[in-house]
Write a structure and sequence with these properties.
Helices cover 32% and strands 22% of the residues. The chain is an alpha/beta fold. Helix 5 (131-136) links the parallel strand 8 (123-124) and strand 9. It has a single domain (8-176), classed as Rossmann fold (3-Layer(aba) Sandwich), CATH 3.40.50.880. The chain starts with 7 loop residues before the first strand and ends with a helix. The chain contains 6 helices and 11 strands. The strands form 3 sheets. The chain has a 7-stranded mixed beta sheet with strand order 5-2-1-6-7-11-10, with helices on both faces. Helix 1 (19-31) packs parallel to helix 6.
């Protein structure tokens, strides 16, 4: 049942990522045959999640180009607050925005999108803890399991992962014009 074969998804990783918010979408994307590239500040580094799950990066963000990907997934945890300090991370996100490619974030992941200045004028959800950050950056914040606004997909927390991943798959299927 490969539905996203030949599609390539980037996912951010860094220390203190939210374990489920990276691992669950990674495996869901692989399950539908999408290629997943785990991108950190450095390639081949073992990053440790908030709950101790290790994840080795496949590539360094500075060596990637949004042109080579169909979408970006931004997990939460404390990682986004650290990664948003790197210009190469922000540029990577801005390039997805310029190309109107999928940007999917969950929980605190939207901190990166805020710092990349790509949330203004979009409907979003996130952990309620960054609601003020979202609205101050110009997003219209909603308390919902998942919000899809054009090429932006967002969710609040790990409990929303099934809806989040379903929305990502549905969006990518429509872009590929494939029927599940």
């Amino acid at each position: 049942m490969p539905v996203l074969k030949n599609l390539k998804i980037a996912m951010f990783v860094g220390d203190e990522y939210e374990d489920l918010e990276l691992q669950y979408p990674k495996y869901r994307m692989r399950e539908v045959a999408a290629e997943v590239v785990i991108a950190g500040i450095e390639e081949g580094v073992k990053y440790v999640g908030k709950y101790g799950y290790p994840q080795v990066s496949d590539a360094a963000v500075k060596n990637l180009s949004a042109v080579d990907f169909d979408g970006l997934i931004v997990p939460g945890g404390w990682m986004p607050d650290k990664l948003r300090r790197y210009e190469e991370v922000l540029k990577f996100v801005r390039d997805f925005e310029k190309q109107e490619k999928m940007i999917a974030s969950i929980c605190h992941g939207a901190w990166i999108n805020i710092s990349a200045d790509v949330v203004k004028g979009y409907r979003y959800t996130s952990t309620p803890g960054i609601k003020d950050d979202m609205t101050n950056a110009g997003a219209e914040w909603e308390d919902a399991e998942v919000v899809v606004d054009r090429h932006h997909i967002s969710s609040r927390r790990p409990d929303d992962l099934p809806q989040f991943c379903r929305a990502i798959i549905d969006y990518l299927v429509k872009q590929k014009k494939t029927v599940i």
